[in-house]
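TASK: fixed-backbone design
INPUT:
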């Protein structure tokens, strides 16, 4: 029997396919990049006289770290781009620096550009994995084991993270210290069982959005879909282009949390 558009079984199968592709990207970020790093430094060292085996210690350490972090982050797509940044940046930096064992050690002066290029490529791979899994958002993602992260539309540092038993509104804020500004995250956590309402609305762009708590860079009332989230007496209006699907995901996870 042919499946029809919107068939839940078909949509769930699509999420399964997305998950398999995303997990291949996760393996590439956490294990593939360190393995490429290891191969490059061994190839560089093999051209040196004498062979310098100690040069492989850094990529081996990165491979071990990647192995453990992959187990912790495999279902947290919000972490993949950051992991790609560090894995790619470290690979570019130390691969260029490893050329110091060669006679043409001027290549080591390229360590900074190599680190930047590696970091950019790593972030791109991590974001590709996240996009492969989560775009477009579908309600069936609620049944997946993933910690779902959605960015709020506009020039804002606010993200909505939907976990199995709670949701978190995460705001990235600059912290001013004697050394300068450094990023930090401010989180507001609500148990899913405390969420009393999730609604999709359409903003005209003329609305002046108000929030239960002050935000450093609050979302503006830009035209388009938005999610109204009610929890513990607080109303959050979160501009998000996939608000309808997010509301359905929340409803399903709320029902599952209350059934526990």
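OUTPUT:
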């Amino acid at each position: 029997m042919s499946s029809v558009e919107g068939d839940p079984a078909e949509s769930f199968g699509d999420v399964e396919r997305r998950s398999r592709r995303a997990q291949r990207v996760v393996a590439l970020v956490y294990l593939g990049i360190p393995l490429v790093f290891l191969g490059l430094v061994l190839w560089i060292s093999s051209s040196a006289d004498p062979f310098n085996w100690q040069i492989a210690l850094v990529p081996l350490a990165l491979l071990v770290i990647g192995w453990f972090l992959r187990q912790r982050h495999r279902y947290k797509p919000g972490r993949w781009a950051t992991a790609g940044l560090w894995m790619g940046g470290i690979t570019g930096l130390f691969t260029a620096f490893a050329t110091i064992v060669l006679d043409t050690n001027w290549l080591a002066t390229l360590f900074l550009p190599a680190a930047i290029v590696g970091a950019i490529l790593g972030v791109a791979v991590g974001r590709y994995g996240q996009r492969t899994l989560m775009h477009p958002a579908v309600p069936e993602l609620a049944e997946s084991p993933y910690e779902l992260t959605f960015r709020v539309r506009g020039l804002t540092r606010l993200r909505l993270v939907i976990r199995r038993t709670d949701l978190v509104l995460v705001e990235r804020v600059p912290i001013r210290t004697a050394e300068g500004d450094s990023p930090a995250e401010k989180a507001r956590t609500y148990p899913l069982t405390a969420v009393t309402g999730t609604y999709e609305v359409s903003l005209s762009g003329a609305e002046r959005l108000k929030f239960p708590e002050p935000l450093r860079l609050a979302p503006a009332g830009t035209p388009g879909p938005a999610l109204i989230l009610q929890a513990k007496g607080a109303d959050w209006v979160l501009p998000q282009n996939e608000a309808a699907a997010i509301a359905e995901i929340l409803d399903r996870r709320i029902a599952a949390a209350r059934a526990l």
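COMMENT: Residues 1-5 have pLDDT under 50 and may be disordered.
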